[in-house]
Amino acid sequence: FPSHDKKIGRVRFLDLSFNPTSGGHVNWHGDFSLMPMASSGKLDLDDIALNKIWQLFLQELIPVTFSDGRLSLETDYQINDHQGTLSFSTDNGNLEIKQLRLNQSENNRELLAIAELKINGIRFNSDQQQINIKSLNSNNGGLNAWLDADGQLNYQQLFKSEPSVNPPAVATTPEKAWQIQLGQLTLYRLS
Which tens digits make up the pLDDT trace of 135-172? Predict the structure, then answer.
């Protein structure tokens, strides 16, 4: 059972665990506060179907479908609202994807197939705009590329944006660039 703090809307040491209908297991342990908005804890996802996650959130953004793929993720995280600005950080993150199959929505042609992808030692900090990854390992994968009738590479079509009616405003101060560091990259049997 959760313990309640004297602060309004603060719940400490809460555990949530369930099995989605598509398979796998979700486990969360941590605390949560509404005033101010904050949460920290540990999130574990085990053997979650990627096609279900994609259907819930992302399928309208990029015209691809997952025909297969299972995701496992474990990470410690912290979310805080600082005067209307949300900050998010993770540490000790490990991600594993098995049997990934990604197809182009329009014609169902396979774009990407990876038997196993492991990303270990993930640290992410939105305030510092940094992503650190200890290692990325991929095994038995393939990337399929082709030219369409207009002579464009198939991947160009996936990420094209619609022209904006209003031109973007000119920034007065340059935005801080994100820093991404990868310690080790290992690719086995890719085609």
Answer: 999 999 998 888 888 888 888 777 766 666 666 666 66
Q: Which of 184, 144, 141, 121 lies closest to 64, judged by CA?
A: 144
Distance CA 40, CA 43 (A): 9
How far is Cα 37 from Cα 80, in angstroms, rounded to an integer?
Answer: 6
Rounded to two decimals, what is the model's pTM?
0.80
- Residues 22-51 have pLDDT tens digits of 889 999 999 988 888 899 999 999 999 988
> How far apart, in whole angstroms, are the C-alpha atoms of residue 168 and residue 186?
39
List the structure tokens of 61: 């953004």
188: left (phi over 0), alpha (psi -120 to 50) or beta: beta
> Where would I find the beta strands (DSSP E) of 109-174?
110-125, 130-143
